[in-house]
Amino acid sequence: MTTIDQSEAMTGERGVYVAGPGGPPALEFSRAWDYAPAPESVPVEIAASYGHYIGGAFVASNSGRTLASSIPAEETALSEVARGDAADVDAAVRAARKAQPAWAALPAKERGKYLFRIARRLQERAREFAILETKDNGKPIRESRDVDIPLAAAHFFYHAGWADKLAHAFPGATPKPVGVCGQIIPWNFPLLMAAWKLAPALACGNTCVLKPAETTPLTALRLAEVMEEVGLPAGVVNIVTGDGEAGAALVSHPDIDKIAFTGSTEVGKRIATEVAGTGKRLTLELGGKSPNIIFEDASLDQAVEGIIAGIYFNQGHVCCAGSRLFVQESVVEEVTERLKIRMRSLRVGDPLDKNTDIGAINSRAQLDTIERYLDLAKQEGLELCEPGGAALPDSGYWRRPCFFTGVQASHVMAREEVFGPVLSVMTFRTPEEAIQRANNTPYGLAAGVWTDKGSKIFEIAGRLKAGIVWLNTYNRFDPASPFGGYKESGFGREGGLHGLRSYVRL
Ligand code: NDP
Q1: pLDDT of 61 over the 80 cut
Q2: End-to-end CA distance of the chain
Q3: Is the pLDDT of residue 41 over 90?
Q4: Fewer C-beta neighbours within 10 Å, C or N terminus of the chain?
Q5: Is 485's C-beta closer than 6 angstroms to any atom of ligand 1?
């Protein structure tokens, strides 16, 4: 650690002390402290290539085609996976169909035991999973280690508990499994999304065909290894890797009973059209442009932490990210000044370093999308504010956290999902205006409200059109709490009792 002489700092030579908003100078930690690198150094075995996991075995794709999976922080190859097509999907659906009656006929307590074992193995192998996720996805190890992997295990634990209590979940009914579920997941929380999809389906006696995202297939395949370890019967979980072609083949397969999709609104709409009239069940967890509302009576330092957690967590690759910040006009300058100070302390860089806050953007394509939005915003006359200018690594896909002020409802920045570390700051004067502006979006996934007044919290939370409303916090997840949206953010819930509902026939 470098120590700083305060008098030197105050001269601004090291830029350590900056004027606090309306108060005494505030210590700016980013430049007052130097961190020694703390890379996660545990080696993780990664095979040169992986097949699909079908019927309890790893198999090559029918066509022999493969896809590369790379390390976004380095732009180097990590592994190669099978590139699935309709024939691979068909083999997986057949395996799932064959396994379903016996899986459903198992005593529910026995099904629960398998889920408990999966959860425990995930905990035991957590470090390995965290490193693999961080390499394949680019997210900081701090997040994969402390959020993704523990939550994935928690989802299996939670649903293991439900397996033999379904009759209590749906009193007066006799819950039956839906059958074979096709599950398509995105690249932003690869293992966690696999857990969200698989755990409730398995607990209810269904069998599954899971299609991970093209750029992040590796932790789902490692989860297949865990399924083997715990002795899960062959065909209960099948994993077909590949791109949109495999996803589309799964959606259109005639022997699928339910589709669960998480991803973009655009693809979600296509899936809804395709599934309409087929009798297949469908749940969609799509995009968002969620409001995070800060009232003048909020604890502002706490709220600034909530802004950071809301939009810069996971590089902003979060469907429920608080990407539209509404600040009461009387405190907007103070909040943006405090935000700038806090943002200067965010460390962008090597995702495997335990001190890193913001990792790599998942792919070249996503980085290009983000940069395109930034250009559009500048063309619309918005000024980019990008506090914290530390050098970025030479290779890899990087984007420093940033925000735009003075955003109006008509700007692209207020309307479209960027899916990156980019925040739009807007203002309001009255609670009524905050509600009107927050609801002025085609999406309805999440929202945040920051205020000291309990009555205001309940009044506003009840009037926000969002599936999840966080009060004096943001981006908190729990397997017992249902997650999902409405309007163009999709329909159906994942987690909690409501999440189970879409995996049973009553
Ligand atoms: P997609 O919706 O394209 O991908 C989500 C999943 O669906 C992936 O597994 C994908 O496969 C698969 N898929 C792609 N096309 C089809 C299809 N026609 N039928 C069935 N499945 C399909 O999202 P992207 O990864 O392309 O990201 C694009 C944008 O979507 C982002 O910029 C972001 O705005 C938004 N997004 C939102 C997410 C959310 O959680 N709400 C998550 C991810 C993205 P493959 O990966 O191989 O293309």
Answers
A1: yes
A2: 61
A3: no
A4: N
A5: no
